Amino acid sequence: MQIPQSVIDEVNQRADLVEVIGKHLKLKRSGQNYFACCPFHNEKSPSFSISPVKQMYHCFGCGESGNAVSFVMKYQGLDFVSAIQSLAEQYGITIPQDERQEKISREEQQKRKEHKLNIYETLEKACLYYRQQLSQSSVALHYLREKRGLSPEIINKFSLGYTPAGFNNLQQAFPDYPTNKLLLDAGLVVVNDNNKRYDRFRERVIFPIRNIKGEIIGFGGRIITKGEPKYLNSPETELFNKSHELYGLYEAKKEIRDLNQAFVVEGYMDVIALNQYGINNVVATMGTAATEEHIKTMFRFCDNICYSFDGDNAGKKAAWRALERSIGLVTDIKSVNFLFLPEEHDPDSYIRENGTDAFKNLATNHSTGLITFLLNQLLEEVNIATDEGKARLISLVKPYTEQIKAIALQVILKKQLATMVDLDPSVVESILNNRSRFAFYNKSLKNISNAYQNNLKRQPLNLNLLENIIQALFNQPLLAREFPLPEIHVLETKDLDLSELFILIAYLEAHCDSFDDIVITDLKMMTNFSHVNLLSIYQKVKMERENFTNTFTFSKEDYCKKLHELVYEKKRPRMPKLN
After folding, report:
1. Residue of 416, 241, 424, 404 whose CA lies nearest to 336
2. What does the DSSP assignment read for 520-538?
3. Residue 399 falls within a domain, yes or no?
4. Domain check: are 111 and 93 in the same one?
5. Cα(431)–Cα(452) distance, rounded to whole angstroms?
6. What pLDDT was estimated at residue 125?
7. CA-to-CA distance for 172 and 183, rounded, in angstroms?
């Protein structure tokens, strides 16, 4: 969404910084300025200064500074647009949604705003009803207190509720139940094929879902008897989009900011159980994989995200999806870790069985970094003992390196990968940075000293076989990708013509999918064969292709076999150099 500059200017002009900050912090006046304990770091003596004249704040402890918009962004974890929207709403400033919005009457805009407010009120009223039902249900209270071990304080903190069996219980709270459109808009009721409505949540413990400002936007429900699904969420509504919202964030945001870390779990009960045991910096993704929006939101509050999913295969798959969403968002400051619990546990069961200290110890000393998790998972897909497995591991890692924006993290990944595949880090660097083998080795070969070249031990070649290989490569450039990477390195140390063949293969591998991709003038400049006329072979292949005659070809197996034979064959008499 694009907000007109005129609206931004009006927000900056009308928003009173003292009023904005005073809603959240206890301010004390000293001279012309106000002071408070900084909300962005722990301190006992107030060093957070607010200037009404300059409409700026500054913390002399941690260095945070800004205006009303930046405070709302930082304190509430909002992006710029959301912060402007929040302040605009607070000060009665209308934001046009698009060009057409300019034409919508102020009356229509007010209707839309009132409709949203009415949905919020409907959800709050439903929440109050659910909480009343919980206080009257011995079955639900027994489940939460005895089976789940929750204290009254935790039950109240998360405003837990209950809805008994029955299809129209909400009618007790909403007398106009059969016709109340807001119940539909809020996702509280469902209409069947016979146009009859019934409660969405029945015989379930209820978990209110709040947005970052604390407003209820939906509910989750867990069945406490036999039945499916075990968990049920509100549908997507005007207020609720589960790919953007995190359960428990409103309750956890201060702790997340103070500890500079957020635990991400899968379910409501994981969040609540960890809170019961004193771990309050926890949020849940509500049955969906972590999205980029989730990750960006958390990174606005802290620098470290630790995913803690179930220890089973489903949990590992969820962790992998989280890695894929996170890898492009991490930086050298913003990091992601993974906490893998024993297979039989989820965070709820683990902390209830082992306690707070055990969970903290596991998180501190046994969590897995993003790079380690990435490499370990990909390692399971290859046989690293073989050259082919090493080559495949490099190819699997490559797309992920291209997503990483953090320079230091890239270096660490490439170094660890080089160790795994037993290659020089510079070779791995060359491949992962989209530079061909040619780009790296052409440079190194051309820099070999003249003395080394003059003294290089020349092995007599089977030049007929060499020419056949080159002819096959010109005709089938994709063959260049078939010879194992570690094996190809021997070409640079055997013979100058083999070194030139190495450059040819590397060029074709990197640049050519077909004969038409070959630029012979480039190849002639790059290579300097002693006993092969490269242009002659190229022209021969070109003529045969134009005349639709059969030029020389190899199968993949024969190509690898012949190339191996050429490299390791015994000495044979040389043919004279071709002109």
Report:
1. 404
2. HHHHHHH---SS--HHHHH
3. yes
4. no
5. 27
6. 98
7. 13
Q: Are 264 and 301 in contact, with CB atoms under 8 Å apart? A: no
Same domain flag for 224 and 133: yes
Q: Which residues pair with 487 in a beta bridge?
A: none
What CATH number did the domain enclosing 193 receive?
3.90.980.10
Instruction: Tell me the β-bridge partners of 232.
Output: 221
Residue 388 and residue 493 in one domain:
no
Q: Name 263's bridge partners.
A: 282, 306
Task: Considering only CA atoms, give the Rg of the chain.
Answer: 33
| Least confident segment among 40-49, 491-500, 514-523, 567-576 | 567-576
Number of domains present in the structure of the chain: 5
Residues 102-144 pLDDT 10s? 555 567 767 888 999 999 999 999 999 999 999 999 999 999 9
CB-CB contact of 249 with 221 (8 Å) = no
DSSP class of 247:
B
Q: Are residues 257 and 217 in the same domain?
A: no
Q: Which helix (H) or strand (E) holds 183?
A: helix 181-185
Q: Is 503 helix (H, G, I), strand (E, B) or coil?
A: helix
Dihedral sign (CA 493, 495, 501, 503):
positive
What is the residue type of 524?
K
Mean pLDDT of 474-501: 66
Indicate if 499 and 413 belong to the same structural domain.
no
Question: Token pair of 579, please?
Answer: 């002109």
514 shares a domain with 457: yes
Tell me which residue of 353, 336, 313, 575 sits closest to 466, measured CA to CA.
Answer: 575
Q: Using CA atoms, how far apart are residues 286 and 345, in angstroms rounded to an integer? A: 18
For 414, the domain range is 381-434
Q: Angle at Cα 383 formed by Cα 378 and Cα 365, nearest 5°?
A: 45
CATH of the domain at 388: 1.20.50
Q: What is the pLDDT of residue 23?
A: 87
Q: Examine the domain organization and report whether 112 and 132 are in the same domain.
A: yes
Please give the single-letter amino acid code of residue 125: K
270 and 284 Cβ atoms separated by less than 8 Å = yes
Look up the CATH number of the domain holding residue 69: 3.90.580.10
Decide: 427 and 421 in contact? Cβ < 8 Å: no
| CA atoms of 29 and 24, how far apart (whole Å) | 16
Query: Could you tell me which residue, 479 or 181, shows the higher pLDDT?
Result: 181
Ranges of beta strands (E only) in 310-367 are: 335-340
Statement: the pTM of the whole predicted model exceeds 0.85: no
- The dihedral through the CA atoms of 423, 426, 429, 434 has a sign that is negative
**Given the structure tokens 């902390």, which residue do they identify?**
351
**Cα separation, 93 vs 85, whole angstroms:** 9
How far apart are alpha carbons 171 and 188 in whole angstroms?
11
- The reply to whether omega before 175 is within 30° of 0 (cis) is no
Q: Which residue(s) pair with 199 in the sheet?
A: 189
Closest CA to 416 of 381, 370, 385: 370
